[in-house]
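Protein in question quoted for reference:
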Amino acid sequence: MLESLRQKKILITGASSGIGRNTAVLLSNYCSHLYLSARREVELQNTLSLMKKAHHQIITADLTQKSAIEKLIQTIENIDGWVHCTGKVLPVPIKFIQQKHYDDVFATNYLSALYTTSALLKHQKINPSSSIVFISSLSTLHTYFGGALYISSKSALEAFAKTLALELAPKKIRVNVLQPALVKTEIYESTVNAAVNEEEMKKHERQYPLGIGEPADIANMTAFLLSDAAKWLTGTFIKMDGGLTLGFQ
C-alpha cells in the first residue's frame, strides 16, 4: 500500500513530537524527501535522529508568523503531500476566556493552516494529485468542559478543509481530516495534568474499548491517506476513537 509513497516529497508541520514525529519516522521508510517543520529546533533534530537516513530537511518555523511561512515556502521544493499536525490545547471555561487566549489558540490551530495553505497555493508549491491531511479532533463531535477555544478552532479547521477539498478537486489534490480522540502525546499529557486527577483519568480510559490511542495509530492512517491507495478519498472526516463513541451515535 505504501509503496506509492516512494520518491514523493512530503511536508510535515508540527513534526517535533507526537503524531507529527511518528508520521515522519514512518514515512522515512518510504519517502525520498521529507520536510519537517516546527518551532523547536532541538526536538526537530530528535525527530530526524529517529528517521531512516535519506535526504530529509528540517525547517524551524513558527507558522503563526507570516514571516516564518515565507521562510518555509522559500525553502521547500514542490511537494506531493502535506500533513499539518500543529495544535494547541488550552482548557479555559467560557466565562474566563480573554482575547489573548483566543488569539493564541486560533493562531496555532486554525490560522497557521489557513495562511500556510494560501502561501503554498500562491507559490504553486503543491503538485497536482497531491494529498493534504489535517489533524483535527474528536472533540468537534463530542465536546468537553473548558474546551470552547480548542473545539471552535478545530471546527474552523474542518470547515476550511472541506472548502479546500472542493476548490482543489479539479487538480486532483485530495484534502482529508483525521479526528482522533485521546492519543498519548504531549497535548494528552498537558490535558490530563490540567483537567483531571489520576483516578478520574483511569475511569475515562476504561471508556475506550480499544484503549487510548498511540501516535503510531494516527501516523498509519495518515500514511494511507497520503498514498495512492486513497486516491478516491477527499473531503473525508475519519473518526479515530478506539470505540469510545460506540452506542452514542
Notes: The first helix runs from residue 18 to 27. The domain at 2-231 is CATH 3.40.50.720 (Rossmann fold). Helices lie at 18-27, 41-50, 66-75, 99-122, 148-168, 186-195, 198-205, 215-226.
